[in-house]
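Thread: Newbie trying to understand structure tokens

Hi all, I'm a second-year student working on a class project, and my supervisor (Dr. K.) asked me to get a predicted structure for one chain before our next meeting. I've only ever worked with sequences, so writing a 3D structure as a token string is new to me. If someone could post the tokens and maybe explain what I'm looking at, I'd be very grateful. Here's the chain:
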Amino acid sequence: MKFFTMSFDDGTIQDRRFVSILNNYKLKCTFNLNSGLFGQQHDITHEEIKVCHDEIAADEVRSLYAGHEIAAHTITHPNLLDCTREQIIHQVGDDAAALEGLCGYKIVGMAYPGGPFFNDDTIKIITENTDIYYARAVGSHFTLDLPKRLMAWYPSCQLHPNEYDEMWRLADELISADGEEDKLYYLWGHSFELDKFGNWDVFERFCEKIAGHDDIKYVTNREVAEYVRSLQK
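---
Reply by user tm_fold:
Sure, no problem. This is what the structure looks like when written as tokens:
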């Protein structure tokens, strides 16, 4: 199997343009959302660049992300390593519950807020007290390998200028792979960074390149996780 999947975080208004591009190329993505931050309007300074970080409203979630997957990102984006057991359960479990009420299906995945801020204890608390069984971390491995641990799932690379060379290389590698072994290309990022760097054209050219191959399955994170779980049975 050859898979291509994406996940993008925070649910900012740039997702509107982002989803439109995905739909045009028939690509799928998982969107990790903070249910306690819907509708907030503010700019942030990210990597020393000021950018709009307005979040979409709750009533837009179901329609905007139709055909994609919604996953948790905690209620208010705390560092989970600074949270108590009860706070972790609240931040993850109640975020998932709120998102389920908006999208109409069970939430089983998440992305850790802040990226590396989790450990084995965090994973144990989440898996024993919520329905979450996969969670994306931050840190590119630049391969097409399937995840070894679904609750510590590292992506192939990030949609970021620092990783563009790897992003294009991995696209070529996936497209040319003979299909004798399972391959997964997992791209992650934030749609607001496409505004930050002014690189929407780069992303659209990438979509044009990766899309439309009959031997590649374009899937959500959940679909990959279900496949990996089936292999582990």
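A couple of things are worth pointing out once you decode it. The chain is about 35% helix and 20% strand. The longest strand covers residues 2-9. Feel free to ask follow-ups in this thread.
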